[in-house]
Specification:
By secondary structure, the chain is of the alpha/beta class. The protein has a single domain, classed as Pyruvate Kinase, Chain: A, domain 1 (3-Layer(aba) Sandwich), CATH 3.40.1380.10. 61% of the residues lie in helices and 14% in strands. The protein has seven helices and five strands. The protein has helices at 2-36, 70-87, 99-107, 125-140, 174-181, 188-194, 201-276, and strands at 54-60, 91-97, 112-116, 146-156, 159-168. The protein is elongated, with a radius of gyration of 27 Å. The termini are far apart.
Length: 277
């Protein structure tokens, strides 16, 4: 399992590296279009709800276990976030990705609005679109006032960090977009002056926001997949090392017991011989 995870991890890393520039680009384009638009078009995804009563949380886990704390730390983070929101009088609606997340949340008695399983080891863009469309529909129908996603961000095979990102409303991601844009923006005023929009920014926003959200979900799924393979590879390596240590310890203990039994038998023979004299 360690070798299989190592091979899958390499492919997952390549998919992340291929997606990151595109995701960064579409996020930067969306942010610039928001700034350039004189009148934000009447789209539900661009509406910032003042009174937040219902929050959707997408918890991204795996379909399989044997990956150390990979799944459990997502469940703990989701439950912790739920408690924080419930303390403020906010109702939480879960959207669970992965069989482990579905079973764990259901075991805790939480209602699940959406279940998405069977693809976590190799997610496709269509899977991300299914998840995104469900939360978009919920937000447009005003069943959700805010949407967040919790997933494992891939740092290295040994390190996966839990992240919580806001997906909806789009404006809530302003700081995230600013950080991710990083050095690509040399100055907003100068950059804005260099951009000519055709059609106008408002029309572009109508096309971009849905793609933007789907790409954000897709990136989270890919990050989670790489984290899963890295966590499983590390967990299986640790399991193999622990098993080897146990074998050595038990072999030593067995030899000690065997030696003690042999010594005891020799002593009994010697005692019997002494008694015949």
């Amino acid at each position: 399992m360690e070798m299989v995870s190592a091979a899958r991890l390499r492919r997952a890393e390549q998919r992340i590296e291929a997606l990151r520039p595109y995701a960064r680009g579409i996020r930067l384009m969306t942010r610039r279009a928001v700034h350039a638009a004189e009148h934000i078009p009447g789209m539900p995804m661009l509406e910032d709800r003042e009174n937040v009563q219902n929050v959707g949380i997408i918890a991204v886990t795996a379909d399989r276990g044997l990956a150390g704390a990979f799944n459990s730390q997502i469940i703990r983070a989701a439950n912790r976030r739920r408690q924080e929101l419930r303390a403020d009088g906010v109702e939480v609606h879960f959207f669970a990705v992965g069989r482990r997340g579905v079973s764990s949340l259901r075991f805790r008695g939480f209602e699940i609005e959406g279940e998405y399983t069977g693809f976590t080891d190799r997610p496709g863009f269509a899977n991300a679109r299914d998840v995104a469309q469900d939360v978009i529909t919920g937000y447009a129908d005003e069943k959700l006032d805010r949407v967040e996603i919790i997933f494992n961000h891939y740092e290295s095979p040994l390190v996966q960090t839990v992240r919580l990102n806001v997906l909806l409303p789009i404006q809530a991601m302003e700081e995230v977009l600013r950080v991710e844009a990083g050095q690509e923006e040399e100055g907003e005023d100068g950059q804005r002056a260099l951009w000519i929009y055709e059609p106008d920014p408002e029309e572009i926003l109508r096309r971009l926001v849905t793609d933007f959200l789907e790409i954000s979900v897709y990136r989270a799924l890919l990050e989670s997949t790489a984290s899963e393979h890295g966590a499983r590879m590390t967990a299986m390596r640790n399991a193999s090392e622990n098993a080897s240590e146990l074998i050595e310890d038990y072999t030593l203990e067995m030899n000690r017991q065997r030696q003690a039994e042999i010594t005891q038998e020799i002593m009994e023979v010697v005692a019997g011989a002494e008694g015949l004299r």
